[in-house]
Structures are given as structure tokens and as C-alpha cells.
Amino acid sequence: MDKKTLSFGLIVLSLIAAVLATIDFISKTNEWAPLGLGADSWLGVAIVLTVYAIYVKQS
Question: Which UniProt keywords apply (predicted)?
Fold first, then answer.
């Protein structure tokens, strides 16, 4: 797998995590928490994946 494909996959996963964070934040209830994580945790996952994707693409 080349760097471009891996980087693109990580960006897609970070966007999915950002969407999950947004949905969890908008719902304003704890009834809909994917994998039991809150919006702040999903946002953290998205940030880590994005930073790693940038690192992979630049290396």
C-alpha cells in the first residue's frame, strides 16, 4: 500500500470520527454514544488520525 492511499484512508476515517462527534454533540443526550465515547473523545480520535495522515503523506 502506498503512502497516498494510506493517507487518504486515514483522512476518511478522521472525517467519519468527526461526523460521529458532531452527531453525538448535537444529540445532547447520552443515549447515542457510539462505542460509549463522547463527542470530545471522537474529536480527539479525528485529530490524531489527521495528524498521522499528514505525517504519513510527508514521510
Answer: Membrane, Transmembrane, Transmembrane helix
Count structural domains, the chain. Answer: 1
Neighbours of 6 (CB within 10 A): 14
Q: Yes or no: say if 39 and 24 are a contact pair by the CB < 8 Å rule.
A: yes
Residue of 55, 56, 42, 41 whose CA lies nearest to 13: 42
Sign of CA dihedral 40, 17, 57, 3: positive
Measured in whole angstroms, the distance separating CA 17 from the mean position of its chain's CA atoms is: 3
pLDDT tens by residue, 1-59:
788 898 999 999 999 999 988 888 887 666 666 777 888 888 999 999 999 999 988 88
